[in-house]
Amino acid sequence: MSDAIRPAQRLWTGDYYNEGAGHADPFDTLREECGVFGVFGHAEAASLSYYGLHALQHRGEESAGICATNGEDFHYHRGMGLVKEVFDRDKLASLRGDRSIGHVRYSTSGDSKLTNAQPLIFKYRDGDLAVATNGNIVNAPKIRRQLEQSGSIFQTTSDTEVIAHLIARSSKDFVEAAKDALRQLVGGFAFLLLTNDKLIAASDPNGLRPLVMGRLGNAYLFSSETCAFEVVGAETIREIQPGEMLVLDKDGLREERYAEPQRKALCAMEYIYFARPDSDMNGSNLHASRKRMGQVMAQESFVDADVVTGVPDSSISAAIGYAEQTGIPYELGLIKNKYTGRTFIQPSQELREQGVKMKLSAVRRVVEGKRVVMIDDSIVRGTTSRRIVNLLREAGATEVHVRITSPPFKNPCFYGIDTPDRGELIASYKTVEEICKEINADSLEFLSPQGLIQAVGGDNATDYKGGLCMACFDNDYPTRTDFDGEEKFGCTC
């Protein structure tokens, strides 16, 4: 640090710029917790994982890791920070092998530390085991207590460690032990398990968290999103089905099942917010789905205005759809500064507001004297929406009409999204009219649940609720969420 910069002026806390990312962010947006990428049968497996994790960086920005093997030894490296900060040429060169799994992580309960960075690596009776997961195991605390009472010693606070202990305690071969372990888990999860001679990919029985398979030559690849396949030049083959477990070893690929599929319930927020717009899920492109959300929003809640603008980045597609449907011009009324750190020291409310302006700016020449339709994907606590509405008003907008391309977010997520307690979700205790007043908007409307299902479409359009988990909107959770009187949400994966 330069002597000219006093410690109090630092824009980040801790040893790396995004430590604790999101926990004190001036924006109250939801956070995804992690992304996974795996390779089996490619000489440059670690390098492919590196580029794949780059494409999945939006799913987790606190830590990254890759484990590779040549069928004998494990070579791995994990670190805190972005993928490009954790790995360099020498570190990648040390990760030798033709199979690998990688992970990017966002912690949600303060456990931003290296011991929880994935893949988690274990030694057990049959050799080495590496585990990477996206999601959340709802009954992990109960299983953990039972394992500790019977002698297990946990090294991390991660949900993911539970499955390693369950596998290690089994007397069955690895594949059957993994099946038994997965059957004991309740929640939303996509696992990649790597041993000295096998790679296993598995999805929860409801398919709550996305996981897809691709091919590059003779190699098999796995990823949380298809956008990572595009980066490495791979072809998307298909999605891993709910309750499915794929086993890759020297004999090739085996498609097995550890549980019967339950109600299909892919997280709706993947479509609305989390996944990159160039990814595909359930046969539907995310950009196209978000455009349709904007179009349906316009049909449900038209308002006469001069310009339409979207909150960067996830709402741009929906804003374009709203503009196309209404004929109101789409403009870049809000600009995101992508070079600021994610966590700010904010000793005063004044500096907190300044933090927002460092991240987002209103374009005065676009909105001044105009009636503006502001499209956003969700309202969590309401503080972000209020600040953005006020930014537009300060830039001269005469009216600001807010349109949210999701239903009101009323309930916490138990399956891997970092959400506040129900009492902190503004839609759980205020009406739409009250929220509108709270965020200082001229009008506020949310997309209807039926409109969301219609807009998403895809291969599961005829399934119950379009094959979506919409519990955060309607309190209809696809799994049990309470164990021993203890509800657990967010993620410590």
UniProtKB/TrEMBL annotation:
Active site: 34 (nucleophile)
UniProt KW Iron keyword: yes
Catalytic activity reported: 5-phospho-beta-D-ribosylamine + L-glutamate + diphosphate = 5-phospho-alpha-D-ribose 1-diphosphate + L-glutamine + H2O
Superkingdom of source: Bacteria
Keywords: 4Fe-4S, Glutamine amidotransferase, Glycosyltransferase, Iron, Iron-sulfur, Magnesium, Metal-binding, Purine biosynthesis, Transferase
Pathway note: Purine metabolism; IMP biosynthesis via de novo pathway; N(1)-(5-phospho-D-ribosyl)glycinamide from 5-phospho-alpha-D-ribose 1-diphosphate: step 1/2
Note on how the cofactor is bound: Binds 1 [4Fe-4S] cluster per subunit. Binds 1 Mg(2+) ion per subunit.
Annotated ranges, domain Glutamine amidotransferase type-2: 34-251
Pfam families for the chain: GATase_7 (PF13537), Pribosyltran (PF00156)
Example of a GO biological process term: purine nucleobase biosynthetic process
Residues that, per the record, bind [4Fe-4S] cluster: 267, 413, 469, 472
Cofactor(s) this protein cannot do without: [4Fe-4S] cluster; Mg(2+)
GO MF, any single term: 4 iron, 4 sulfur cluster binding
EC number: 2.4.2.14
Residues the record lists as binding Mg(2+): 314, 376-377
Known role: Catalyzes the formation of phosphoribosylamine from phosphoribosylpyrophosphate (PRPP) and glutamine.
NCBIfam families membership: purF
Family: In the C-terminal section; belongs to the purine/pyrimidine phosphoribosyltransferase family.
Designated name of the protein: Amidophosphoribosyltransferase
Organism for this UniProt entry: Paenibacillus barengoltzii G22
